[in-house]
Design a protein that fits this description.
- There is one protein chain.
- The longest helix has 21 residues.
- The protein is globular.
- It is an alpha/beta fold.
- The strands form three sheets. Strands 3, 4, 7, 10, 11 and 12 form a six-stranded mixed sheet that branches. Strands 2-6-5-8-9 form a five-stranded mixed sheet, with no helix packed on it. A two-stranded parallel ribbon has the order 1-13.
- It has two domains: 65 residues, no CATH class; 230 residues, Protocatechuate 3,4-Dioxygenase, subunit A, CATH 2.60.130.
- The structure holds 3-methylcatechol (MBD) and fe (iii) ion (FE).
- The site of fe (iii) ion has 5 residues, from β8.
């Protein structure tokens, strides 16, 4: 088959009818977006001469994606979430906002409601024989380099199996294991006492890995730690750090690695006095620099569905 029907009046009318484009009712923005995306799909079907079998494979794939609860995971894996960062970076550049800690994607595994502590939090609630102790500490400063008092640093990461609490397929972890929040004092410092994470891998039988297999891509991330950082009058920062030395550091299936987000990992002793499980431990110093709101507004706040657990 090599037919081109997209530009026909019949198809253009069908697109308008299907999205109720010419009526005043409904959500105008949703109609605009649906009309455009559906049109782009129709055009791609024409251009690539997609077969009915291919279309139904795609429709069935979407069903499996939803059944597996993996739509946000696929968004990370296909670079859609990274694309949003590229757009926000470009918007910042246009607005001449610079100097802050680089953003990188949130990913789908945040859980709201973790306990908030002052200054320091020990977040490794569950024993993990294969993970050594790790201290992550630093400061939160404003664009002028002043410490931010009352800033909140939220942290979440995986265990030595690459699994996150709440999403752990083995069900092994306590709620909020390896998740926590620290509120800074007047000196703007924060500290997390935790364990060294291992990189995440997509569920092997899930829809995301299924598509990645077809594309001959892997579904793994290098070891990393996520952060949200908030402070009064400053924009919320969403970022991550990588654990230096992970072989996948520049081969992340979610494209989240950035040059300035790979702090050195330092060997330290004295862990016993800090309540760590071994005296020898690793330390990462990572300082967050927040950026000012734009006309009093946080233009990088992102609303999305997030898991919530009551403390
Ligand atoms: C993760 O831990 C993650 O951070 C992302 C972006 C996707 C899947 C798992
Ligand atoms: Fe992650």
């Amino acid at each position: 088959m090599n037919v081109k029907v997209f530009v026909s009046q019949e198809v253009q009318d069908l697109l308008k009818a299907a999205t109720n484009l010419e009526s005043e009712s409904g959500n105008a923005r949703a109609k605009q977006i649906t009309h455009r995306l559906l049109g782009d799909l129709f055009k791609a079907i024409d251009d690539l001469d997609m077969t009915p079998d291919e279309i139904w494979a795609g429709v069935n794939y979407i069903n499996k994606l939803g059944q597996d609860g993996e739509a946000a995971l696929l968004a990370a894996g296909l670079g859609l979430e990274k694309f949003l960062d590229i757009r926000m970076d470009a918007a910042d550049k246009q607005a001449e906002i610079d100097g802050g800690t680089p953003r990188t994607i949130e990913g789908p595994l945040y859980v709201a409601g973790a306990p908030v502590r002052d200054g320091m939090s020990k977040i490794d609630l569950d024993a993990d024989a294969n993970a050594g102790p790790l201290v992550i500490r630093g400061t939160v400063t404003d664009p002028d380099g002043n410490p931010v008092a009352g800033a909140v640093v939220e942290c979440w990461h995986a265990n030595s199996n690459g699994f996150y609490s709440h999403f752990d397929p083995t069900g092994a972890q306590s709620p909020f294991n390896l998740r926590g929040s620290v509120r800074t004092g007047g000196d703007g410092t924060y500290e997390f006492r935790t364990l060294i994470p291992v990189g995440y891998g997509c569920p092997p039988h899930g829809a995301t890995q299924q598509l990645l297999d077809v594309l001959a891509r892997h579904g793994n991330r290098p070891a990393h730690v996520h952060f949200f950082v908030t402070g009064d009058g400053l924009r919320k920062l969403t970022t991550q750090i990588n654990i230096e030395g992970d072989p996948l550091i520049w081969d992340d299936f979610a494209y989240a690695t950035r040059e300035d987000l790979i702090p050195p990992v330092i060997d330290k002793t004295g862990g016993q006095a800090l309540g760590l499980k071994e005296d020898a431990y690793k330390e990462i110093e990572f300082n967050f620099v927040l950026t000012a709101t734009v006309q009093g507004k946080d233009n990088q706040l992102v609303n999305r569905l997030r898991a919530t657990v009551a403390v």
